[in-house]
Structure formats: structure tokens, C-alpha cells
Design brief:
Helix content: 25-40%
Order of helices and strands: EEEHEHEHEHEHEEHHEHHHEH
Structural class: alpha/beta
Radius of gyration: 18 Å
Shape: globular
Strand order of the largest sheet: 5-4-1-6-10-7-11
């Protein structure tokens, strides 16, 4: 099957305007994401989808492939769907443009279930929460799954919530059994094109989590467990942290 990775990249950002072009060890951050995504063995093609000419030109300069999209998309998934409608491929991987240290193995882990099972329309990743502060943070999305690793629910609150919460969390966050959702998605192309047309749903609006729309409409999401850790960049301080990790590696 043909697998295409699309990296949605916007210049506008409330906390960090222009972050895809932020300098990271002499390269724009979007180049780090692009090059690491290219290393995934299951990926046949990588495309940056943007509505900003500066990002498009930067990708062209380092030899990558980029496409211009409409500027009125409410979500990155809508931007992906626009690009997917003109592609000939089987699977689409959504790689966030603010993950300069994305491990290619994470992409491969998320893709393989959809290669092996044609009934799976959508997949993603989770990793055990190791820090008690992440248990309480609404910025860290949690996920619970069934015994076959299909998502039951995503939430900004702690799920599952242990009865003896504070004692267990402080002593050993891993004992709580909570998992952090990693925002890397894999879609079957046809499903992705139809996905933005699904009506918004109550839980999606309440949690402000777009993936809940799929669950509320009855679609199943395969969630693969990984011990690998992502390092997203939301602020200039996050970029400094990633720069430190690169310098020490």
C-alpha cells in the first residue's frame, strides 16, 4: 500500500508565531520534522501542507515537497483532507509540524495496524504517563482503550481516575495506569476525505478534542502503545528545550 505523510504547518500561532520557520541548529524546525518523517520505512512520500508562502518557500529551498492550501480551514485535519483529495494513495499520516524530534519508529508503529487490517479506518499512539504533573494537566490529553487497544475515550481530565488518587499518583504515577495521547494520526484516505464532513459532536465540543467526533459517530480508533517520547514545540521555551536535547545528544 502507498503511504503518504502530510505535515500541516501554519505560520500563525498565538503562543509562537512563525514557529515552523524557527531556527533550530541552523535549520528551520519544519525541516527537522520533514527529514525525520522521511526516515520512516513505511512512508513513500512526505508533503508539507501550508497556507503561508514563507513556509512553502522554505520547504522548497531545502528540497522538500510542499503544497499551498486554503487559509480558512478550522483544523489541521481539514487541511489534510484538502490535500488528500488530490492524492493517489491508501493511507495518510498526519505528522504535527511542531515535532522536530519525532522518532520514525513512532510513525511506523502507528501505520502498521492499518497495513495489516483493512477494517481499521484510523489509528494513533499512546504512551504511559510517568510524571504526576501530567496527570493533572489539561494540556496533556489522556486516552483509555479496550482490551484490543481501540480507544474508548479521550479526555483532558485524568482517566482512569483511581479511587486513592493522590496517594497512588505521588508514590508512583505509572501505577495509576494513565496513558498520554500522542497526536500522530493515520487515516485511510477515503475516511480522511469524509471525516471533516461529519457533524461536530457534543463531547468533541466539550473537551475540544477533534478525535472524539470519530468515536461519537461510531468509528473505531486503534491506539498503539509506545515507550518513545515526543517533544512538541508550543512556545519559544519549548524550542530552547529541544535545542538543548540536540546539543547534548
Amino acid at each position: 500500500m502507498v503511504v503518504t505523510a502530510i505535515i500541516p504547518a501554519r505560520f500563525a500561532s498565538t503562543r509562537f508565531p512563525g514557529k515552523p520557520l524557527a531556527d533550530l541548529m541552523g535549520k528551520p524546525m519544519i525541516q527537522w520534522v520533514y527529514e525525520r518523517t522521511m526516515q520512516a520505512e513505511v512512508v513513500n512520500r512526505v508533503i508539507v501542507a501550508t497556507d503561508d508562502r514563507r513556509i512553502y518557500d522554505a520547504v522548497q529551498t531545502f528540497g522538500g515537497e510542499a503544497v499551498m492550501t486554503r487559509s480558512d480551514h478550522p483544523t489541521g485535519t481539514d487541511r489534510l483532507a484538502e490535500v488528500a483529495s488530490s492524492l493517489k494513495c491508501d493511507l495518510i499520516v498526519n505528522v504535527q509540524g511542531d515535532e522536530p524530534l519525532i522518532d520514525p519508529a513512532m510513525i511506523e508503529a502507528a501505520v502498521r495496524p492499518l497495513l495489516n487490517d483493512p477494517a481499521i479506518a484510523m489509528g494513533t499512539l499512546k504512551t504511559p504517563i510517568r510524571d504526576s504533573r501530567e496527570c493533572l494537566s489539561p494540556h496533556v490529553v489522556k486516552v483509555v482503550t479496550d482490551q484490543n487497544d481501540f480507544a474508548l475515550y479521550f479526555s483532558r481530565s485524568l482517566i482512569p481516575f483511581p479511587r486513592d488518587f493522590y496517594e497512588e499518583m505521588e508514590a508512583n504515577p505509572l501505577k495509576v495506569g494513565a496513558f498520554k495521547h500522542i497526536g500522530l494520526y493515520v487515516y485511510r484516505r477515503d475516511f480522511l476525505i469524509d471525516y471533516p464532513r461529519l457533524p461536530s459532536t457534543p463531547l468533541e465540543r466539550t473537551e475540544s478534542l477533534e478525535q472524539l467526533r470519530a468515536l461519537e459517530h461510531g468509528y473505531r480508533i486503534k491506539v498503539v502503545t509506545t515507550d518513545l517520547i515526543s517533544h512538541g514545540v508550543d512556545t519559544p521555551e519549548d524550542l530552547d528545550r529541544v535545542r538543548g536535547l540536540l546539543q547534548s545528544s
